[in-house]
Each structure stands twice: as structure tokens, then as C-alpha cells.
């Protein structure tokens, strides 16, 4: 059995044995072989994916609350080098200034960092995970939640559930 197949099986076993309550019969798996990841999404959600020939970076779902959750995989073409640096760049592009309000964490087995910020009534949460690769350009996984202050607590539960379901897969060679 190949090492990559063993990694996939191990990831699935861990997700099922430790986090089995995070996945319900009403969830379906979104697979992104191009950027090497999968997540479980609510089956009832409205999904938005790029149509070919556009790159297949990820998926977004509309929430019943009016909010949106999205997951993106992208190559680290600007050579950020870490989840923290990538998040800093994302916040700069969104014209958001934070002072040490980031939280370090792990997403699957990857180094990750996250933060939340507000603009008017919109509350946004960003979690960035960094997948370093020895001979290839690294991959940055970005998870986003955009919602209102009144729906933030409810929507964040689903957002965290989706992040916990995240698994890496072998990348195409």
C-alpha cells in the first residue's frame, strides 16, 4: 500500500473515530484533488464552484442566515512562507488592521492562524493553513466566514465544524 493511500486512510479514520459527531448523514464530501483537500459540507447548502475552464480553487456555500462560508486552496506564488504571513497579506488586501488578535492553531496537521474582524454589520472570520512542500510551491488554504453580528455565533458553529472536517489529500504530480 502506498504512503499516500495510508495517509488518506489514517485521516479518514481519525475524522471518523475522533470527530464522528462532526459529520452527519446530511453532510456530503467536497473533494478538491487539484489543491489536495476535502471537507464535509451540509447537503442542503447551496454550493458555488468555479466552472471549467476556470481554476478549481475551492467552494463557497450560502447559509440560511444569509452568511457565506468559503474554502480556497491556492499556491503560495508570493512566497509568504507561513500561515501568519499569508493571513497578514489577506488582511492588508481587505484594508483591515489588527494588533495581535490572531490565534494559532492546527487545521488537520497543518500550521494555521485565524482572526475575526468587523466592518459595519459584517463580521468576517479568516483561518489560514499553510502546506509546505519540499520541492514544490507551498499551498495556502483559506477558510472564510462572512456573516452578521446577530448570526455570528450560530454560523461560527458550522464554520468550525467544516474546518474540523478538513483533510489533506495527495496532490497531483
Task: Please tell me about this protein's structure.
The protein is an alpha+beta fold and 173 residues long. Helix content is 24%, strand content 38%. It has one domain: Protein Transport Mog1p, Chain A, CATH 3.40.1000.10. The protein contains three helices and ten strands; from the N terminus they run H-E-E-E-E-E-H-E-E-E-E-H-E. A seven-stranded antiparallel beta sheet has the order 3-4-5-9-8-7-6. It is globular. The two termini are 18 Å apart. Mean pLDDT is 84; it is low at 8-25.
Radius of gyration: 16 Å
Classified in CATH, the superfamily is Mog1/PsbP, alpha/beta/alpha sandwich
The order of strands across the largest sheet is: 3-4-5-9-8-7-6
The second-level CATH architecture is 3-Layer(aba) Sandwich
Quaternary:
single chain
* Count of extended strands: 10
The best one-word shape is globular
Q: Could you give the order of the helices and strands?
A: HEEEEEHEEEEHE
Intertermini distance: 18 Å
Specify the CATH class.
Alpha Beta
Overall domain count: 1
> What fold name stands as the CATH topology?
Protein Transport Mog1p, Chain A
Approximate strand percentage? 35-45%
Major β-sheet, in short? 7 strands, antiparallel
Mean pLDDT: 84
Unreliable segments of 5+ consecutive residues: 8-25
Helical fraction: 10-25%
Count of DSSP-assigned helices: 3
What structural class do you assign from the helix and strand content?
A: alpha+beta
Amino acid at each position: 500500500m502506498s504512503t499516500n493511500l495510508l495517509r488518506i486512510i489514517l485521516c479518514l479514520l481519525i475524522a471518523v473515530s475522533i470527530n464522528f459527531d462532526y459529520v452527519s448523514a446530511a453532510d456530503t464530501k467536497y473533494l478538491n484533488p487539484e489543491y489536495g483537500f476535502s471537507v464535509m459540507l451540509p447537503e442542503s447548502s447551496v454550493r458555488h464552484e468555479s466552472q471549467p475552464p476556470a481554476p478549481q480553487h475551492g467552494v463557497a456555500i450560502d447559509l440560511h442566515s444569509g452568511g457565506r462560508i468559503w474554502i480556497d486552496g491556492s499556491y503560495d506564488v508570493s512566497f509568504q512562507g507561513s500561515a501568519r504571513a499569508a493571513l497578514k497579506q489577506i488582511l492588508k488586501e481587505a484594508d483591515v488592521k489588527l494588533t495581535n488578535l490572531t490565534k494559532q492553531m492546527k487545521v488537520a496537521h497543518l500550521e494555521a492562524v485565524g482572526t475575526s474582524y468587523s466592518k459595519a454589520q459584517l463580521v468576517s472570520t479568516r483561518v489560514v493553513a499553510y502546506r509546505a512542500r519540499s520541492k514544490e510551491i507551498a499551498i495556502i488554504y483559506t477558510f472564510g466566514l462572512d456573516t452578521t453580528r446577530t448570526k455570528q455565533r450560530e454560523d461560527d458553529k458550522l464554520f468550525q465544524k467544516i474546518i474540523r472536517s478538513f483533510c489533506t489529500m495527495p496532490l497531483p504530480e
